[in-house]
Design a protein that fits this description.
Oligomer: single chain
Distance between the termini: 19 Å
Helix content: over 70%
Structural class: mainly alpha
Number of domains: 1
Number of helices: 7
Shape: elongated
Strand content: under 5%
Order of helices and strands: HHHHHHH
Low-confidence stretches: 169-175
Length: about 180
């Protein structure tokens, strides 16, 4: 009874793993696209984005004051929406990846340029804006995965074999 349940679980695990190998990066790309479109759209509406002040200050510093606040928000919103649409539809990924790299430099630049603003909580804990930027580290990691896939990298898995199942059974028994 226990060994048949274990075999069933191993088969189920193999099915789930196979599905993940086939679809995980597509799901990552599409979900990241939805995040970029969503956050980009917010920036088109003054006061709607919690990152609005941080965006304006960062672009002001990066452009040496040459880009006005309203234009900074429209440019950022447009860039984020274009990146999001590119990720959602999966076409023009080369351009999308390059735009994403530029955007990620802008997203992370406050860590270097505005650390006092991002980490002014008790004991230098991150503020809400700091947490917003730190969360963007996940976007960097996701972008790296998407970029490697775009360049031809693949997630692969070895074919199942009775040896692999037997090894899994032995490992499960030891735990």
């Amino acid at each position: 009874m226990l060994s048949s349940l274990n075999a069933l679980l191993i088969r189920f695990e193999g099915y789930v793993h196979g599905w993940l190998v086939r679809h995980a990066i597509t799901v990552l790309r599409v979900s990241m696209g939805a995040v970029f479109v969503g956050f980009g759209l917010l920036k088109f509406f003054p006061g709607a984005s919690p990152a609005e002040g941080l965006v304006v200050t960062t672009i002001d510093l990066l452009s040496f004051g040459l880009i006005p606040a309203s234009l900074a928000l429209v440019l950022t919103a447009t860039l984020e929406c274009l990146i999001g649409i590119g990720l959602l539809i999966g076409r023009g990924l080369r351009l999308t990846i390059y735009l994403l790299a530029v955007q990620l430099l802008g997203i992370l630049s406050p860590l270097v340029m505005l650390p006092g603003r991002l980490f002014s909580g008790p004991h230098h804990a991150p503020t809400l804006e700091g947490q917003y930027v730190l969360k963007d580290l996940i976007l960097v990691a996701a972008a790296m995965v998407i970029a490697t896939r775009f360049r031809g990298a693949r997630i692969t898995r070895p074919e199942s074999s009775s040896e692999g199942i037997a090894e899994a059974n032995r490992t499960d028994m030891r735990v």
